[in-house]
Design goal:
Blueprint: H1 2-13, H2 19-26, H3 33-42, H4 52-71, H5 102-113, H6 126-131, E1 148-162, E2 168-176, E3 179-185, H7 187-193, E4 203-212, E5 215-219, E6 222-225, H8 226-233, E7 236-242, H9 248-259, E8 262-272, E9 281-289, H10 293-303, E10 308-311, H11 316-329
Parallel strand pairs: 3-5, 7-8
Antiparallel strand pairs: 1-2, 1-4, 2-3, 4-5, 4-6, 7-10, 8-9
Helix pairs in contact: 2-4, 3-5, 9-10
């Protein structure tokens, strides 16, 4: 009925010019708020050039505005949303907000439609998939039963089941860019990773492959978050800054960002001069970090796209330098160092 009402409005008065026009023309018809919110989440209003975040956050005010427009009151009395004298309307109250990030867009889209339409949450991890020793869900067809496999995927659905003893176990489906595979987590494993599986971030799942009359299934023995997978993959995080124009505020901001992402991987600062092709100094920061995507976004957002590199292998000279720093400090950094200490530079 809601769809019929929308189609009827289009046929009667032509295409909708924008989102406020849509609301004004369907107010009072069989299109309730729940339907409108589902349409927003699914991206149905992209053709009307409105961000989903804006449509959702402006909806309350716009519905009130649309009701007034429908009643013909906006031209005869001062609008509730207008600061103009003389009762002139200031137009539909549309807020100016940034769009949801990709994760939220896809999450809301799937909640509304039951599947991903705009993109896939695994699409952004193509480079990482090439580095991780994993299998795609489609390639599992050629795997021998009993062989241990690793799959990097998002959790598409999760169903908790209680054993006869009353313990919780889980059955879930894993989705990657090529398909899906079922997985089962028995109580001992599920109790350890239950919270990890509640997010919309990819997980790295390990376990032997089993087959039955219904297809393949992974009996999960290990679940790693994406951050844990990155920590196993990368050995150093290198921050690259130009000495030209570098200020104390820049270094203070760098320290604050790094302290916000503690982990096991050493952070290194490379200082460069614009006229030289190689670093003039490589400095151990006495800070260990998690080489997460969030850390990369924080650093590139503050210092630029070329300001950070995650390295899978450590240069031998750099390794020796870090060992020397560790020996001099007397113990390994706990990842939350007290500050940047001036150390011997390595010049290129």
């Amino acid at each position: 009925q809601a769809v019929d009402s929308i189609l009827e409005a289009r046929l009667q008065d032509g295409p909708f010019s924008d989102f406020p026009d849509f609301l004004k023309r369907i107010v009072g018809k069989k299109v309730n708020r729940r339907v409108i919110e589902a349409l927003i989440r699914s991206g149905a209003f992209r053709s009307l050039n409105i961000r989903r975040s804006v449509a959702m956050e402006s909806l309350d005010d716009l519905l009130v505005w649309a009701e007034k427009q429908k009643a013909g009151k906006s031209s005869s009395q001062k609008s509730l949303f207008s600061d103009n004298p003389g009762g002139r309307s200031s137009g539909p109250p549309v807020r100016d907000l940034p769009e949801w990030d990709e994760r939220m867009l896809l999450r809301e889209e799937k909640n509304a439609l039951g599947f991903y339409l705009t993109s896939h949450p695994m699409a952004r991890y193509g480079d990482l998939l090439l580095k991780l020793d994993t299998r795609s869900t489609r390639s599992l067809e050629s795997v021998t039963e009993g062989e241990t496999v690793r799959v990097f995927a998002v959790v598409g659905a999760l169903r908790e089941v209680k054993t006869k003893k009353g313990d919780k176990m889980a059955q879930l489906s894993l989705l990657d860019m090529e398909g899906t595979v079922e997985a089962v987590l028995f109580p001992d494993i599920y109790a350890q990773v239950q919270e990890i599986l509640q997010t919309d971030l990819p997980v790295l799942v390990t376990g032997p492959l089993e087959r039955n009359d219904f297809g393949s299934k992974i009996r999960v023995t290990r679940v790693e978050t994406i951050d844990q997978a990155l920590e196993s993959l990368y050995q150093t995080v290198v921050v690259r800054l130009q000495t030209d124009g570098l200020t104390g505020k820049d270094l203070a901001d760098l320290k604050e960002i790094l302290l916000g992402f503690p982990g096991p991987v050493p952070a290194i600062l490379e200082l460069k001069v614009m006229t030289r092709p190689y670093p003039v100094a490589v400095i151990g920061l006495h800070l260990n970090v998690s080489p997460s995507d969030d850390l990369v976004r924080a650093l590139t957002g503050r210092f630029g796209e070329q300001s950070v590199v995650r390295k899978e292998e450590m240069d031998p000279d750099l390794r020796n330098y870090l060992v020397e720093l560790k020996q001099r400090s007397g113990s390994r950094s706990d990842g939350r160092g007290k500050g940047f200490r001036r150390e011997k530079s390595l010049t290129g």
